[in-house]
Structures are given as structure tokens and as C-alpha cells.
Write a structure and sequence with these properties.
InterPro entries: CFA/CMAS, CMAS, DUF7884, SAM-dependent_MTases_sf. By secondary structure, the protein is an alpha/beta fold. It contains 19 helices and eleven strands. The C terminus is likely disordered.
Length: 410
């Protein structure tokens, strides 16, 4: 029974390309018109067929993790991208669409990330092992979208270009005090201190990241220009000339967007400037994948531009510049995914089993496909408390954007 149900779903869903499915009985069938992308997958157990009918997204993730869904690693992206592209056609079953709408409506309840829950969420993802992240990130351990001023840039150069792009938008002067909300392993803070003469305070809820950031500051001779705290951003009380936050807003949760931007407004000095770098949808609000929420980023939420804009408006901040970075995170994730695959022997040496490897591989693939196949990008929100805290034209950026930033990246 369940196979016939899933076949009906696939016939309705795949309107572009072709998906070849090998069923548990060994029979293979094709779905879709054939023109366009092609992919193949094997379902190895009858239980996964029923699970895919009941809860497609969770079953797809868990089924791949435990081997009930099999797809060669080098073909996994094609399979996931084909599904994501066709899902955009709006031909999913009505009950699936209704569940998505209900989860969007309930996001204010599901994502109440108080300080205790926020710390638990951070530990789940960031406190697993710095050694794992070192295997696929750039040398500076930038775990956010790079900025490819030239498509041929290396990952290291593109991450340097990202940091320089952000620094220019912050209009830094030597001696300025900067708050780095969600400072990660300290790369941004160290760059702003070393290259721009800022005094940076970084806050994080990850004990691993805190220890690494402090060690890196000592090794770089920047301990006198940086301070790293294990602290929830909501508890920061100091005043700062600048605020920067890269890849942290996604962890705030929908109910706390207003709280976040109000805090940014409160810690900024009257002439202060903030730059918020975050993943976002240029489409109506969408629910977080239940698989991503359970296994990868508990409590996470990718906001739509409409949601972010509303929170900024209510905070009293000026939105002095809004840039949408398109076509940058997909290539970033592709670099990470290829590095992860190349480092698998070392991943296994660290003690990670095949289920974890399949989980992490799928996470990187799903994210890359989301940026390539859906209306998902990266927002750069430049904010200030006063209208003239930022120049009234973009000339100050254009002077750096191509030749200078490319040179700085290399």
C-alpha cells in the first residue's frame, strides 16, 4: 500500500528532470519528464517507504543516516537538489503544505530560546570538536558565507574578502570599541583588532569556541586588544562604537528577533554603526526543516526579509544599507563539502562513525541545495542610531569593492 502512495507523490512532485528509484524489492522505476537534472536513489527497506509517506523531510534525513535510503556520496547533491527544485513547484500533497503552514504559524511558540535553552542549542552544534571543523573550514575557521569577489578565489581568499567587506561597512577607526555578537572561534574579532586597530569584545555561548578564541588571541599577540566572554548577548551592558554579528541571528529564533535588534540599539553609542550578516529568505516565511532542527541546529530559524525588516523598524534603528548576497553561500558550502569528503579518513580517526558522517554530509548537501535552488541568500544589514552616522552614498564602499578587496583577499 505504502509504495503505491509514495509513487503517486513522486509522480505529482517530479515535474522537472528525472528521478530513478530502486525499490526494496529490487525493481527500478523512473519519475519525471526526463528533460533536465537526473538523479537516482535506492530504498533498501520497506519501513522507509511508509516513513517517507508519513513524514517526508524527517524520513529522508533519518533514512539516509541509517542506510535505509542509499545514494552514492558523489551523487547525493544531484538527488537532493532535484527534490528541492521540484518542491518549489508547489505540487507537494495538500496535507504537507498544510503542515508547513501550521509550523510557520507556531514558530512563535516552538522557538522560544531563553538563555538556558540557547546555550544548550549552541553546545549541540558547536561544542562537538574544534578538530572536526578544522578539517573543512578555512584556516581562520570562518563558519559563515564567504564573499567571492572573483569566482576563482580560494576559500581562504573569499573568507578574507568577506571580513574586509564587513569591516568597510563598519567604517572603523583605530581605537573604536566593537562588540562581536556570536564571535565563533574569534576570526572576525582578531581581524578587526589586527588590521583595523579596533578593541573587540566577543561573546559566545560555546565553551569550545571561547577557549579557542582566547588561545588564538594570545598566540597572535592581540590579547590586549580583544576580550572574549562566555555570555548571552542579552546580558551585555557596555556601550560600543560598533556592533558586528556574523551568522548568529539564525540562532535567535523568530520570537526573539525584536529582542535582538532592540539590544543592538541599546548597546550602540549615539553615533554607532552595526553590521548584521545573516542567512535569510527573500520569500514569505518558511518553517525550519524538522530534520535540521533535531540533528543540526536545534532552535534555529532562517528569517524572511519581511520579518527582519519589521523587527528593525520597531527597534528605532536606521536601516542605512541592506545588501543581499546571492551566489556566495552555495559555493562556500561546496568548498566545505569537498573538503569534508577529502578528510573522511581523519574524520574517522577522530572517532566519528558512519551514521555521523552520513548526517554531516547530508547537512552540507541540503544547505548547498537550498542556496542554489530556493530564494535563500545572505542579508547584510547596516544599522545606525542616527541618519548621518553613515555616508549618504556608497562611494566609501565602491572604492574598495573590486580591486582593493581582491588584493586584500589574496
Amino acid at each position: 500500500m505504502w509504495q503505491s502512495v509514495l509513487e503517486r507523490i513522486l509522480k505529482r512532485l517530479i515535474v522537472e528532470g528525472r528521478l530513478r528509484v530502486t525499490w526494496p524489492d529490487g525493481m527500478s522505476r523512473d519519475y519525471g519528464p526526463g528533460a533536465g537534472p537526473k538523479a537516482e536513489v535506492t530504498l533498501t527497506d520497506d519501513s522507509i517507504v511508509a516513513a517517507l509517506c508519513r513524514n517526508p523531510v524527517m524520513a529522508l534525513g533519518e533514512g539516509y543516516m541509517d542506510g535505509r535510503i542509499d545514494c552514492p556520496a558523489h551523487k547525493l547533491y544531484e538527488f537532493v537538489a532535484l527534490l528541492v527544485r521540484n518542491q518549489q513547484s508547489g505540487r507537494m500533497p495538500s496535507w504537507f503544505t498544510a503542515m508547513d503552514r501550521m509550523r510557520v504559524a507556531l514558530r512563535g511558540i516552538e522557538q522560544r530560546n531563553n538563555p538556558l535553552r540557547s546555550q544548550s542549542n549552541v553546545k549541540h552544534h558547536y561544542d562537538i570538536s574544534d578538530d572536526l571543523y578544522r578539517l573543512f573550514l578555512d584556516q581562520d575557521m570562518q563558519y559563515s558565507c564567504a564573499y567571492f569577489t572573483d569566482p576563482g578565489l580560494s576559500l581562504e581568499a573569499a573568507q578574507k574578502a568577506k571580513k574586509n567587506h564587513i569591516a568597510h561597512k563598519l567604517l572603523l577607526k583605530p581605537g573604536m570599541r566593537v562588540l562581536d555578537i556570536g564571535c565563533g572561534w574569534g576570526g572576525m574579532a582578531l581581524t578587526l583588532a589586527r588590521d583595523y586597530g579596533a578593541h573587540v569584545t566577543g561573546v559566545t555561548l560555546s565553551e569550545n569556541q571561547l577557549a579557542t578564541a582566547k588561545r588564538r588571541a594570545e598566540e597572535a599577540g592581540l590579547a590586549d586588544k580583544t576580550e572574549f566572554r562566555l555570555l548571552d548577548y542579552r546580558k551585555v551592558e557596555d556601550a560600543f562604537d560598533r556592533v558586528v554579528s556574523v551568522g548568529m541571528l539564525e540562532h535567535v529564533g523568530f520570537p526573539h528577533l525584536q529582542e535582538y535588534f532592540t539590544k543592538v540599539q541599546k548597546v550602540l553609542k549615539p553615533d554607532g554603526v552595526a553590521l548584521i550578516h545573516t542567512i535569510g529568505h527573500t520569500a514569505p516565511p518558511a518553517p525550519t526543516s524538522p530534520w535540521i532542527d533535531k540533528y543540526i541546529f536545534p532552535g534555529g530559524y532562517v528569517p524572511s526579509l519581511s520579518e527582519v525588516s519589521a523587527a528593525v523598524e520597531r527597534s528605532g534603528l536606521w536601516a542605512t544599507d541592506v545588501e543581499i548576497l546571492r551566489g556566495h553561500y552555495g559555493p562556500t558550502l561546496n568548498h566545505w563539502r569537498r573538503r569534508f569528503e577529502a578528510a573522511l579518513p581523519k574524520v574517522r580517526e577522530l572517532g566519528y562513525d558512519e551514521r555521523f558522517i552520513r548526517m554531516w554530509r547530508l547537512y552540507l548537501v541540503v544547505c548547498e541545495a537550498a542556496f542554489e535552488e530556493t530564494r535563500q541568500g545572505v542579508f547584510h544589514l547596516q544599522l545606525s542610531r542616527k541618519q548621518y552616522a553613515v555616508p549618504t552614498t556608497r562611494d566609501y564602499l565602491h572604492g574598495h569593492s573590486e580591486q582593493e578587496m581582491l588584493h586584500a583577499a589574496q
